[in-house]
Amino acid sequence: MKWSTAPIALLLIYLIYGTFLSRFDLRIIPGEIASHDPQGFHDYTGVINIHTNQSSGSGSMSEIISAAQESGLDFIFFTDLNSFENENRAYAGYHDNLLVFVDGEFTFLNSRLLNLGIRADRDLSGPGRAQVLFGDLLSQYPRNEDQGMLFLAHPMRKKFRWIGDYPPGLDGIEVITEWSFV
After folding, report:
1. Residue-level pLDDT at 182
2. Which of 15, 101, 117, 142 could connect to 77 by a Cys-Cys bridge, CB 3.0–4.6 Å?
3. What SS3 state is found at 73?
């Protein structure tokens, strides 16, 4: 067989093999045991830890909200880095069917923390007060619910790894830390 006919022969074998396989049901999980939402429960799709062009991101809040709506997301969390200003709180709330949260990601010691759902803004009025607040919050559990939840952000990035035992006040760890689209 010449080299010029080899690709054609491989294509034919591939098509014949594909036709043969298409006759069989190759589902790994049968449809009758597929997952369904239990009555009263719903799956919500969203993104946590979004940075805008006001910190390390590339889009404005309005642009990101539009993109999230076009993508069919149910919620998003804006978490601009070390943002102590409250002017963006006006974006929080529903934008058609998209629920928008405006929270923050903060530098703490050698790591980064996501502080989601904080309602006690007076404690985040500057870097020094934020460091004291996070030190206090990480040392106690349970805590007042208006102080939000704390998640360790970017735990796999070399320069943001937590050193030592996890504190009792940490509510969770970010699992997928980097995802970008071109």
Report:
1. 42
2. 101
3. coil
